[in-house]
């Protein structure tokens, strides 16, 4: 199911009241010109899964936080902002969850040069 | 309120890996716990984008280094789903047997380390590790290695189960059945064990759902979700077994759910070994050039010893375009703050032990 970015918290809370109250995972895929963010939701009784997909343009990477709807979104959103460089609005800026990179692209974006020799911030390329 | 801040870790014997917990205490009562993770982050999801399909299992195996077979299988099953490959019937049985053996080995490690954490130093640990070793011997017989197997191939296994395997597996399961009973008899009457486990770290049913915890932690809080039942794969739907659910949501329930699960795993292994069909379980040999996957996106979920693992893969012709791994430990660890709030400081390790986290899997 496709969703619009602006109405995302409202969409998820509507689905939550319809029974999809268990957040399985938030993940993203970088397709170079756009980034797809995927919310996997589950209804536990009876068991049914649903996928909500939001498409973001690479030049305008931000998302509203859904932490108020699903508390478990906390760590996933932090991971998302750190690994994909997506700004999460509507929550206080958290400290980094996994890894601090020195001035390079977010690691899971396609622009990340994984095979380039590692340089720290002070070193000249 | 006079808050004392204590750092636990990154290297601490009770944390089972490198994790730093910043604990705020009011007297002896925990006010807040903030886990700092990432010390074991190896970027497996990124590495997967740079390797051919069958070069990746050695990486995914090392995510959860006490249940590598399960992760190995979860990844290979995702590739199979992308390529539209169905494993042969003997392979399905063999995989079910190996996965359940791995679950028993993993739960035995949980049992040993948990008892260490709460002060029953080394007796149970030695017992459990001795038994775990016997399961590893069996896995070695099947896969040729004790720790990292890389035994799964597209459509089957690297090698057939040896002819002596069935007999050895059945006799080990008979022995293990007795041992699980002995463990329960030995541990559950111990007043120290009960004092530290019952009513400590309670996670209510609603809270468990809200925090998104998974696996035995979810089932200990009264929510019956088990991928093996909800979305049966291989031959799980052919055997009668129960996915055990308890209601209390405390440390004790999280321990007990795993003990009951071990009994169920023993039943599954016995039934699967007896019903194993004739024929070869071998899969396709590893070639760098794999078949081109017809499915662009594949989603596979599996019940690992620690909870539900979900792999979301976007496929390219020779290697994954993106591999996203939902690690069960990651989300179980995120719940530690809610679980430990209000408990005593010494209980933190009992709670952490009952969550049974593996840091390799949390950090990926």
What this model shows, in words?
The complex is a heterodimer of chains A (125) and B (364). Chain A has two helices and five strands, in the order H-E-E-E-E-H-E. Chain A has 125 residues and is an alpha+beta fold. Chain A has a domain at 8-89: Beta Polymerase, domain 2 (2-Layer Sandwich). In chain A, 31% of the residues are buried. Chain A has helices spanning 8-17, 73-84, and strands at residues 22-30, 34-44, 47-57, 62-64, 87-89. With 364 residues, chain B is of the alpha+beta class. Chain B folds into two domains: 1-41, no CATH class; 56-326, Cytochrome-c3 Hydrogenase, chain B (Orthogonal Bundle), CATH 1.10.645.10. Helices cover 48% and strands 13% of the residues of chain B. Chain B contains 15 helices and eight strands. Chain B has helices spanning 44-48, 57-61, 68-83, 89-117, 123-143, 165-188, 191-197, 205-211, 216-219, 227-230, 251-275, 328-334, 336-340, 347-355, 359-363; strands spanning 3-8, 20-26, 29-36, 152-153, 156-157, 297-304, 307-315, 320-326. Chain B has a three-stranded antiparallel beta sheet with strand order 1-2-3. A three-stranded antiparallel beta sheet of chain B has the order 6-7-8. Chain B has a two-stranded antiparallel sheet with strand order 4-5. In chain B, a hairpin with a 4-residue loop joins strand 7 and strand 8 (320-326). Chain B is globular. Chain B starts with a strand and ends with a helix. The interface between A and B is medium-sized, with 28 and 29 residues.
């Amino acid at each position: 199911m496709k969703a619009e970015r602006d109405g995302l918290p409202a969409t998820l809370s509507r689905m939550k009241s319809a029974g999809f109250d268990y957040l399985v995972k938030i993940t993203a895929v970088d397709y170079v010109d756009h980034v797809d963010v995927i919310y996997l939701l589950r209804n536990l009784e009876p068991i049914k899964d649903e996928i909500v997909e939001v498409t973001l343009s690479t030049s305008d990477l931000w998302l509203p936080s859904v932490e108020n709807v699903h508390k478990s979104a906390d760590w996933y959103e932090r991971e998302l902002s750190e690994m994909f460089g997506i700004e999460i609005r509507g929550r206080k800026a958290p400290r980094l969850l996994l890894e601090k990179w020195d001035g390079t692209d977010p690691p899971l974006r396609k622009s990340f040069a994984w095979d380039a020799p590692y340089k720290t911030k002070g070193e000249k390329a | 309120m006079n808050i004392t801040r204590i750092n636990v870790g990154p290297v601490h014997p009770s944390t089972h890996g490198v994790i730093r917990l910043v604990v705020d205490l009011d007297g002896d009562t925990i006010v807040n716990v903030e886990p700092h993770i990432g010390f074991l982050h190896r970027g497996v999801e990124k590495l997967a984008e740079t390797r051919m399909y069958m070069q990746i299992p050695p990486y995914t195996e090392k995510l959860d280094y006490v249940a590598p077979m399960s992760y190995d299988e979860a990844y290979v099953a995702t590739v199979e789903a992308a390529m539209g490959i169905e494993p042969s019937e003997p392979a399905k049985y063999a995989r079910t047997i190996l996965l359940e053996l791995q679950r028993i080995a993993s739960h035995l490690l949980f049992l040993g380390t948990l008892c260490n954490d709460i002060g029953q130093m080394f007796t149970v640990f030695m017992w459990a590790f001795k038994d775990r070793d016997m399961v590893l011997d069996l896995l070695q017989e099947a896969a040729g290695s004790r720790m990292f197997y890389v035994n799964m191939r597209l459509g089957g296994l690297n090698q057939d189960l040896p002819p002596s395997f069935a007999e050895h597996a059945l006799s080990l399961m008979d022995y293990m059945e007795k041992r699980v009973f002995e463990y329960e008899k030995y541990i559950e009457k111990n007043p120290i064990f009960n004092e530290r486990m019952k009513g400590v770290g309670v996670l209510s049913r609603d809270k468990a759902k809200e925090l998104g915890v998974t696996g035995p932690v979810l089932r200990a809080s009264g929510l019956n979700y088990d991928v093996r039942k909800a979305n049966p794969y291989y031959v799980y739907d052919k055997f009668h077994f129960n996915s055990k659910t308890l209601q209390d949501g405390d440390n004790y329930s999280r321990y007990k759910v795993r003990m009951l699960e071990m009994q169920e795993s023993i039943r599954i292994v016995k039934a699967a070994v007896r019903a194993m069909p004739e024929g070869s379980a071998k899969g396709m040999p590893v070639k760098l050039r794999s078949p081109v996957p017809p499915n662009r996106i594949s989603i596979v979920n599996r019940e690992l010893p620690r909870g539900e693992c979900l792999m979301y893969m976007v496929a390219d012709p020779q290697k994954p375009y993106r591999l996203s791994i939902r690690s069960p430990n990651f989300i179980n660890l995120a719940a530690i703050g809610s679980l430990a709030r209000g408990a005593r400081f010494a209980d933190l390790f009992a709670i952490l032990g009952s969550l049974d986290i593996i840091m390799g899997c949390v950090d990926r």
